Amino acid sequence: MINRERDVVEWALLGTGLHEAREHLDSLIRHMSSPDFDEVSFGCQLSHVYAHLNQAWNGRDKRGAWTDSDYATFSQYPRDLRPDEGWPPHHNA
Q: Model-level pTM?
């Protein structure tokens, strides 16, 4: 994983991405009380939150600039992180 002391720029970008996820989640929660809030709006806004969270997890080892391909790949839901398992993942013997 990137390191806050060694990878200063990448660490700052990781924090920025997480702050953006929080801002979008806060916006989503506020918008839920709006009369025009619907499933399409919910899905669109929630997918944006997930994109930021997914980028944080999937890009945690990336040093240097991200390419367009990196953004697309890192936005995908992680294959190595299962919310129902917690962290660290439990492995069945």
A: 0.86
Q: Where are the domains of the chain?
A: 8-74
Does 35 sit behind a cis peptide bond, omega within 30 degrees of 0 on the bond before it?
no
Please give the Cα distance from 60 to 83 (Å, whole number).
Answer: 17
Helix (H, G, I), strand (E, B) or coil at 65: coil
3-state secondary structure (DSSP) of residue 63? coil
Q: Could you tell me if 48 and 2 are in contact, meaning their C-beta atoms sit under 8 angstroms apart?
A: no
The series of mean pLDDT values per 10 residues for the chain, 93 residues long, is 97 97 97 96 96 97 96 93 72 52
With a CB cutoff of 8 Å and minimum separation 6, the contacts of 73 are 58
Structure tokens at 17: 């991405």
